[in-house]
Amino acid sequence: MITLRDVTKRYGEVTAVDGVSFEVPSGEVCVLIGPSGCGKTTTLRMINRLIEPTSGSIEIDGQDVMSVRPEELRRHIGYVIQSVGLFPHLTVAENVATVPKLLGWERRRYEPKVRELLGIVGLPPAEYADKYPRQLSGGQAQRVGVARALVADPPLLLMDEPFGAVDPLTRERLQAEFVRIQRELKKTVIFVTHDVDEAIKLADRIALMRSGNLEQYDTPETLLDHPASKFVHDFMGSDRALKRLGRARVANVMRTVESTTGGARSVVAEACGGSRFVYLTDERGVLEGWVDCKVLDAGTPPEEAGTTVDWHEAAVHPETTLKDALSRMLGFGFRNVAVVDADGRLVGEVSLAAIEGTMADADTHIANLEEGEVLGAIPEESPAERDELT
Amino acid sequence: MVALAGCLLLPFVEFRPNRIVSGTFETVFVAGVASWALVALIALALVVALAPGRVRGSLLLVAGAGMGLALLWALGVAAVHLQEGAPAIVRVSVGPGAWLVGLGALIVWFAGTRATASVLVRRIAGVAVLLGVAAIAMWGGLGELSLAREYAVQSRRFWTLVRQHLVLAGTGVGFGVLIGIPLGVAASRNRVVRDAGLGIASVIQTIPSMAMLGLLIAPLAALGLTAIGTTPAVIALTLYALLPIMRNTFVGLAGVDAAVIDAGRGMGMGRLQLLLRVEAPLALPLVIEGVRAAAVLVIGIAAVTAFIGAGGLGILVFQGWGQQADDLTLLGAIPMVVLAVLADVSMRGLRRLVVSPGIEEGTLT
Q1: ipTM surpasses cut 0.90
Q2: Is the full-model pTM beyond 0.80?
Q3: Can you list the domains of chain B with their CATH numbers?
Q4: Which residues of B touch A154 (CB under 8 A)?
C-alpha cells in the first residue's frame, strides 16, 4: 500500500504540489491525471525520490521513503517513462537485466527471469534478446521498457505516460497487454497520463489533479457519475456515457445462448425454441456461424439460412469493453453479438438492450449537475478560472 | 565525374616525371622498362577516371596501386642505373616529378577506395600493395637512393630519435588523457569548470607551438625548472593534447539523451554507476576521437620540441635544413607522417573494438 500524506513540493515561490494526500491499496492501479503542469509527474517522481518532497510523508507498506537510501529505494520500484530511455549501447537482454545486476543477482538467477519477462511483454527472447534498441520500433522499445521495470519483481511500478509516444494503434495494443499483465502480476501501479480514455480503461482509482491540488480521488465510475466539481465534470468529458461503457466488460452483461452442433433442420428448429438466433458450433464448441430462426420459419433449409463467420472478426470476448462491443454491433449492423473465449468457443451473447440497460443507471446525478444545481456547492471557483476552462 | 577526372588529369599532363642526380635532372626514362610501365599506368588511370563504369572503382584501385608500385620500382632501377660505376659519394635523390607522381598515385588510390563498395576488394588491394612495397624494398634497389643512404649512415641515431619522438608524444597524450578526461567529466557536471576549462584550453590551442615553448620559460623558472629539455616539452605537448580530449569528453557526455539518464537514475543507479555504466560507454566514440585528434596533433608538434633539446625526429629535420641536406630532412619528416598515420589508424581500430555496435553507425542493419 502506498500512502501520501500532505505531500508538498515548492520551487521557490512556485508550489508544484500542494498538500496532496491519498492512499493506493496493494495490487491496484492508480492513475494520476490532470492538465499539463498540474503536478502529476512531480507527485510520481517524489515517490521514488527523483524529486525530494518539501514537506509531507510518503510511505510504501508502512515504510517512509525518506528512511531508505534513494538508490536502494529505486531498485525496488519499477520505473517506466514516456521516452523509454533504453540504454542504446546495451542489447535488449542487457537492458532488461539492469536492475538485477544493480541488486547483485547472479547471472543464472536473472537470465531466466529476463527471458520470461521478454516473453510476457510479447517479444520472443530468441528473436529479440540480442537486438539493440535502435533496431526496435517505438512499441517494441516500450515493451522492453516495461520488461526492464518488472524483471526484479518490484511490488510497486511507477509509469510516467508510458504509452504517450507511440501511435494510437500501438497504444491500444500496449494498453490491452498492460491490462493482461496486470491481471496476472497484480502490481501496485501509479500511472501518469493526460489521456482520460486511457485512465478510464486502466485505472482502479483515478487521482485527478489541478494546479498542484488533488481535485478528486475515486474509482473511474464515481468520477464519471459523481464528479465532485465542475472541473472534474468538464475534464472527464461530455461523452461520459460512452466512457462508462469503456469501463464495463462484456462478461458483466452477457447471457448464455442456445447453440447446436451440425445443421440438421429438425435439430436447429428445436433449438430455436423462442429465441431469434441459434448459434452453430463445431464439436469443440468453436463458433462457426448462426441461423436466423425467422428465416428458418419461412421454410428455408438451415444449410442456406445459416451465416458462416470467422469468430476472430465477428465475435467479442468476455473481457472486451462494452464500448468496443457496441462499436462492433454498430459496425456489423447487428443487435446481438456472440461472445467467445480465447480459443473461439462460444460462451454467450451480448445484446444492445443489455448495454443500454447499463447506461441508464447514473444519469440523474449528471443531469442535475449539468443544470447547475450542484455547481452552487463549489464556491471556490473564480470567474477567471471558469473562463479559462471553457 | 568530369571534374574529378580533371583533378586527376592535371598533375600528370602538366608535369613530366623527372629524376635528379647531383644537380642534373634525368627524365623518368633512365629507368627503362619500369618507366614505361609507370607511364602506361598513369595513362590507364586517366582513361579509367574519364570513363565511368561499373568496375571503375576497382580499376582505379588497380591503377593507383600500380602507379605507386611502378614509381618505387622506377626509382630503384634509376638509382642503380645512375650509380653504376660511379664513386660512392654520388647520391641519387627523389626529384619533384616523382613526388608528383606519388601524390597522383595516392589521389587515384583514394578515389578508388571511395568508389569501391566491396570491402573485400579493398582489403585484397591493400594487402597486394603492402606485399608489392615489401618486395620492391627488398630487391628493387631502393637502397641505392640517397634517402636510404642517409638512413644507413644514421640508422642507430634514427631509431633512438623515433623512440624519443614516440615517448614525447605518448607522454603528452597520456597526460592529456589523465587530465583531460576528468576535466571533461567535471565540465559536464559543473558550469564553471565547463566555461573556464574549455575557455583556457581553447586559448592554449591558439598559441603557436614555438611561442608556447617561449611562454613556458617564466612559469617553469618560477617553479625552479629550466625551460630546456624533456620536462617543458612534455608540459607543452600535454597542454596541446588537453583541448581535443577534454572538449570531446564534455561533448560526448553532454550528448547523452536525458531520458537515458532519467531511466538510469530511476532504476537506482548511483552517480558513479551512471557515469561508468551508461554515460561513459555512450560518450566513448567521441572521447576516442578526441584522443586520436590529440595524438595526431601532438606527433606533429613534438617535432618543434627538438629546439629545446627534447630530442625526437625534429632533430633530423632541423639538421637537414641547416645542412641543406634535403634527404636528411625527409628522413625526419617521413617517419613523422608514418607515426601520425599509425596513431590515426590504431585509434580507429580501438574504436571499432571497444565501442558497442548498438551506437556505432553502419554496424547493424
Answers
A1: no
A2: no
A3: 2-144 (no CATH), 154-360 (1.10.3720.10)
A4: none
